[in-house]
């Protein structure tokens, strides 16, 4: 079948932008995920319906490619669809389009269903989610590029945080977009002012919960390309890791 795509237009508000008037990556991801929730709601598989079954959608990986981030007051369109799914994984694509329908941000993602009772992933309840109404089943397991293995004995930047009550979402764990802010906030302000993300690969390993102390660590490499490696830890456990490439702001 043809993949069913869902689109919605919005204007970038000033309060979701940085000092240069560029949209925060975390805010951008919020809008893209919101579009997918609206699509799921149409098929009867949105957060409200899943909560009634004590289930929730959880992201395991994002692969992000950015031509540019939108500016404040700019009108853009969030577009999303599910190219395929299998027994355990749902593969969802996101696109942020400018006013000429040109994609300025592309995101590939992997989602699972988590049981609130066990806090573990379960097999996708395809019938209840109506996934076959908007996509096709495929036994193929899609694999994203691997994160670079690193020695974290030394880091270039580090910041400590404590998970706040308002960081928790209806899935009863830290909303995934907060990891973007924790990771990027560890970098110096002048670096963030002068650079924009080109690509980002982020993988979530473990949940973090209210009140936990976490550490955001960053390693910076300038050659052959300007890259940063990030990880969020809670104690001795890794909660999330990411590799980011950067370009100079124009």
TrEMBL record:
Pfam families: Acyl-ACP_TE, Acyl-ACP_TE_C. CDD domains: 4HBT. Keywords: Fatty acid biosynthesis, Fatty acid metabolism, Hydrolase, Lipid biosynthesis, Lipid metabolism, Transit peptide. Residues 156-248 form the Acyl-ACP thioesterase-like C-terminal domain. InterPro entries: Acyl-ACP_TE_C (IPR049427), Acyl-ACP_thioesterase_NHD (IPR002864), FATA/B (IPR045023), HotDog_dom_sf (IPR029069). Residues 5-124 form the Acyl-ACP thioesterase N-terminal hotdog domain. Belongs to the acyl-ACP thioesterase family. This is Acyl-[acyl-carrier-protein] thioesterase. It comes from Lapidilactobacillus gannanensis.
